[in-house]
Amino acid sequence: MPEVASSPAGRAWRRFRHNRPALTGAILLIFVLAAVAVGPSLGLPDPNLASESPFTPPGPGHWFGTDIHGRDLLVRTLVGTRISLLVGLTGAAVSVVIGVAWGLIAAYAGGRTDSILMRTVDVLYALPNIIFVMLVIGLTETHLIRWLQSVAPSIAGSARLLLLFACLGAVSWLNMARIVRGQVLSLRNRPFILASRVLGAPASFILRRHLLPNVAGVVIVYATLTVPAVILYESFLSFLGLGIRPPDASLGTLIEDGARQLNPIHVRWWLLAFPAGILATTLLALHHVGDGLRDALDPRSEN
H or E segment at 279? Predict the structure, then answer.
């Protein structure tokens, strides 16, 4: 008996669940999200609570061990993973908003507008992204954040975190803009777009109702792949001391703390192994989910 045709979403879900690496990545990602969402509230100690048991190896009571201040590494890893994921998701969201709007306008307007917008993207591509972020954060720390600490210290930490979100999102949208522009250029002269123009539909309507839905699949896939890139940026910046500041923790700061404790005399491996393992697992899961979504949303991959 022939299989009854399903909706595009149903076919995409069927292709996704038949992709074992993608499904495994999704399960791992759901597990990590659930752990960081509810784990710190399940009777675990305060992540910044010091004790008189520094460098306790993993075992009952401290399953991930403790750090130099006797703080429980398990709860600090959960909280750090939460912050890193928040940075990654927010940075990816900023990248989607700017990149999609930029690419849509450039491709649909064409002519001089397209040339100006895309030459701007080319100029920004020539700048080393991570150095640009380091420069902006360093200058802002010198002036704005210090001024906030003297005037309103209660919001200085939030302002630093928002600055990190904005900077990471601001350097992650360039690829998104180019991808969306390429997709829109291939759709701009399709019959249904030309018919809408002939009927007098405004450009905003065509962009919102015709072009944006047709590039949504590519945007979703690339956004999924942008999250790990932003997390890596944040981890690197935190490792250099330009991201999350103590006593708060992210995976980058925890890896930095663990790397400082590696020496030939005392090998406190758990301080580096657990945060690095969680970071690697999360990034690997995100990459597999992104690859699976790319294949699932591509009609040509239908079996």
Answer: helix 270-296
DSSP character for 115?
A: H
For residue 4, being part of any structural domain is answered with no
Residue 4 confidence class, pLDDT cut points 50, 70, 90: very low
Query: 122-129: long-range contacts at Cβ-Cβ below 8 A with a sequence spacing of 24 or more?
Result: 124/171, 124/174, 125/174, 129/171, 129/233
For residues 234 and 167, is the Cβ–Cβ distance under 8 A?
no
Which domain CATH number covers 188?
1.10.3720.10
* Within-domain flag for 45: no
The residue type at 59: G
User: Per the domain annotation, does 184 fall within a domain?
Assistant: yes
User: Rounded to whole angstroms, how far apart are CA atoms 101 and 106?
Assistant: 8
The DSSP symbol for 62 reads B
Specify whether the CB–CB gap between 87 and 251 falls below 8 A.
Answer: no
Decide: 292 and 272 in contact? Cβ < 8 Å. Answer: no
Cβ partners under 8 Å of residue 264, min gap 6 = none
**pLDDT for residue 27:** 93
Cα distances from 87 to residues 72, 84, 169, 229, 234, in angstroms, run 23, 5, 9, 11, 7
Contact 83, 47 (CB under 8 A): no
CA distance 164 to 234: 8
pLDDT digits (tens, 9 = 90+) for 211-228: 888 888 788 888 888 888
* pLDDT tens digit sequence for 84-113: 888 888 888 888 899 999 998 998 888 899
Instruction: Indicate whether 167 belongs to any domain.
Output: yes
